[in-house]
Amino acid sequence: MGAKKSILSAERLDEYAELTYLTKWEVLLILEKFERLVPRGIENDFNRRFSIEEIMDIFPQLKVLFRNHNPFRDRLFDVFSSQHDTRCSFEDVLDMFSVMSHNCPHQVKAIWAFRIFDCDNDNMITRDDISAICDRLTNYNRLLEEEKESIAEVILNEIDLQRNGSLAEFEFVRVILKISEFHHTFSFRP
């Protein structure tokens, strides 16, 4: 980045650094990588949307993260996609890297993790979501329905404080924050 002039105004850079858990340097690093996708510059359209493949091509850490076909890749991109179309703009990717930053508070990370595991986007983690999570983790159809139902039963018995058969965000967050490795494993750098 050295002497290269940024296409971001100082005010906009300050705003991005203020609104995210990223440093100004990290914002500029992400922008520099995005400029590779748009040779004439991205400055005319910071909301231009890019495919998952294009984004993974410029961020090797995402490619490595998903090399073994991460079962939640589509959920990660869908949750951070402002249009929920699995395509992301520069600002969507800033949000993703912000949440995945080591500077992001554990509570904020846990809320975003809840969104990723809420597979049907109904603001609750239900038996169906738990079954879908089991399918994703076992490469689909490796567990019998009875086994997935048993797993859902155990999870809900332990975590469902309201005893309503599903997990609200606060119940999920409460448990996730007790897992010491969560913050470290739910992180990556730009």
Structure explained in plain terms:
The protein has 190 residues and is mainly α. It has 2 domains: 10-104, EF-hand (Recoverin, domain 1), CATH 1.10.238; 106-190, Recoverin, domain 1 (Orthogonal Bundle). It has helices spanning 10-19, 24-35, 52-58, 60-65, 73-80, 90-100, 106-117, 127-137, 145-159, 169-176, 182-185. It is elongated. The mean pLDDT is 88.
Structural descriptors:
190 residues, Recoverin, domain 1, mainly alpha
Radius of gyration: 19 Å
Structural class: mainly alpha
CATH architecture descriptor text of the largest domain: Orthogonal Bundle
Order of helices and strands: HHHHHHHHHHH
Hey, roughly how much beta strand do the residues contain?
Answer: under 5%
At the first level of CATH, what is the class of the largest domain? Mainly Alpha
> How many distinct domains?
2
Question: Briefly, what is this?
Answer:
With 190 residues, the protein is mostly helical. The protein has helices at 10-19, 24-35, 52-58, 60-65, 73-80, 90-100, 106-117, 127-137, 145-159, 169-176, 182-185.
Question: How are the secondary structure elements laid out?
Answer:
Blueprint: H1 10-19, H2 24-35, H3 52-58, H4 60-65, H5 73-80, H6 90-100, H7 106-117, H8 127-137, H9 145-159, H10 169-176, H11 182-185
Helix pairs in contact: 5-7, 7-10, 8-9
